[in-house]
Amino acid sequence: MQYTQLLRVLCSIVIISYMAVLVLGDTKCNVCQPNNVKCLNETHFSFCADAVPSDQVIKCPDGQVCTSLLKICFPKGATEASCTPDAEISCPPCSGSSLFVCTSRTTFQMCDEGKLIGQATKCKDNTFCSMKSNKYCVDRCEITKSESGFECDRESPLDVLKNKSPKY
């Protein structure tokens, strides 16, 4: 009798642990994974090592997706991508308090009444969007000094057009 109860408790623990892994292991973009990469979208990644610049973006071969496995890129469908197209990308919203917002790591755009207007402006090479700095674009050192990193970690402002519901 006690053995049966013990087995039920152990099975319950295993099931709950598995469900927690599924929920907590939700696919997110731009998060360093155990394989020392962060998937930026379904097919692109960057390394999370101190010796490698984090702004260096690498594309998986055609037909492959970025994963948290030791082999970073796997054929699509063989395993789930760590960062799905529907995963939330954190970007600041157009609000009444901001005249401009970052629309990607290297672009910014004007806001008017909560909507993006005009064309996205690209920062100079080797600089990154930073509205918090009041300089629009800053070099990599200023980004790494800030605790939050990129204000918008979207690879390109064109990603806004590809997503069905951009997170602005």
Walkthrough of the structure:
The strands form 4 sheets. Strands 1-2-3 form a 3-stranded antiparallel β-sheet, with no helix packed on it. A 3-stranded antiparallel β-sheet has the order 6-7-8, with no helix packed on it. The protein has a two-stranded antiparallel sheet with strand order 4-5. Helices cover 20% and strands 24% of the residues. A hairpin with a 5-residue loop joins strand 9 and strand 10. The protein is globular and about 65 Å long. The chain has 2 domains: 61 residues, no CATH class; 63 residues, no CATH class. It has 168 residues and is of the alpha+beta class. The protein contains 3 helices and 10 strands; from the N terminus they run αββββββββββαα.
What is the domain total for the residues?
2
Q: What structural class do helix, strand and pairing data support? A: alpha+beta
Largest sheet: 3 strands, antiparallel
**Overall average residue pLDDT:** 75
Q: How far is the N terminus from the C terminus?
A: 57 Å
- Series of H and E elements: HEEEEEEEEEEHH
Helix content: 10-25%
How much of the residues is beta strand, in percent? 15-25%
The number of distinct helices, counting runs of at least 4 residues, comes to: 3
Uncertain stretches: 10-26, 159-168
| Strand order in the sheet with the most strands | 1-2-3
Alpha carbon gyration radius: 20 Å
